[in-house]
Amino acid sequence: IVPVAADQSEAPVASRAVEAVAGSHWNDEYGPLGYGSFNCVCCNAWLLLLLLPTLFLLLVAPGLELEHGGTLTRAALALFGLSALFFCLVSNTNPGVAPRTAPYIVGGREQGFEHPGEAYSYCQDSNRYVRGFDHSCDFVGNDIGDGNMHYFVGFLLSLASFATFLTACCVLSVYEMAAPPGPTLALEHDPLKMTIALLLLVLVFFCFRGCARSEACEGVLPLIMLMPGAVAGAWLLALVTATLVVMPLVTDMWADVRPSHNPAALFLILPYLAFAVLFFGMAAHWVHLLCAGLSQKLWLRSRGYRRQRNRASQSGDALV
């Protein structure tokens, strides 16, 4: 039992579940965006969701349409529309916010508010009690609970499928640049360029190593590496990164740039693949939690993870 006032001379009755939240009451209001909210992470997520298909449509789709028609482009737009739909649903749907209860009065003074029930857990980020509370997701700008968990898993699966499809399209575009007959991508046996490529590769991985140890990444990477397949995904991304660094220097990929021969597809593989690995891992993780009857908070505690109250951890709240 937590009283509101500092004076505890009149203790509340122990048989009544009472809890003080944010001084006087907790938030249960429905805002202009439903139960979601605008924040920096959420706005950047929207921009990123718009940037992914835009780059594909501008740089990769024209070349694919010359060879395969508009089927691949329409499929990409359909997957993007599905991801955007789930994004809106999970962002604006009521996660299970408890209605505000009546104040509990002891000795003529307000001592707090009655707890809404065992099914509800308190979220410090949104100052709300949420039924079946799992975590607060800055990426979608909403709490995740019983009311929108199915939308959240659908969003992860649809976004992972979308990113995987775009990755496959980029790989197809690169393959068609180099595949016979008449390959348009060939190695250049220049010792100087190969040496520069090797030095640049070493520099890039030292930069990644420094980023991983930086204060900004400390709250994000531990959470990402807890996701299923994170280690395999990290090695795969490292391989793709090495390819992206080396190929522009040891091939003639820039010699003849046109819609059917656009090297941009090669460079887009990395971000699309990163999203595919990350969101498929997250989707598998939350499906496992649902089957096991666990919340994200309890699972993290079982793994020994403790949220640190600093800037680095706050940057990782989008995954917690």
Could you walk me through the main structural features you see in this protein, from its secondary elements to its overall organization?
With 320 residues, the protein is mainly alpha-helical. 53% of the residues lie in helices and 8% in strands. It contains nine helices and seven strands, in the order E-H-H-E-E-E-E-E-E-H-H-H-H-H-H-H. It has helices spanning 40-68, 71-92, 149-178, 191-212, 221-225, 230-250, 264-292, 296-302, 311-315; strands at 18-19, 103-106, 109-114, 120-123, 128-131, 135-137, 142-144. The strands form three sheets. It has a three-stranded antiparallel sheet with strand order 1-3-2, with no helix packed on it. A two-stranded antiparallel sheet has the order 4-5. A two-stranded antiparallel sheet has the order 6-7. Strand 4 (120-123) and strand 5 form a beta hairpin. Helix 1 (40-68) packs across helix 3 (149-178), helix 3 (149-178) packs antiparallel against helix 7 (264-292) and helix 6 packs antiparallel against helix 7.
The number of helical runs is 9
What is the first-to-last residue Cα distance?
28 Å
Task: Identify low-pLDDT runs.
Answer: 1-24, 310-320
Q: Helicity range of the residues?
A: 40-55%
SSE string: EHHEEEEEEHHHHHHH
What would you report as the Rg, rounded to the nearest angstrom?
25 Å
Give the DSSP E fraction (strand runs of 2 or more residues).
5-15%
Tertiary shape: elongated
Number of strands: 7
For the largest sheet, list the strands in their spatial order: 1-3-2
Largest sheet: 3 strands, antiparallel
Structural class: mainly alpha
Mean pLDDT over the residues: 76
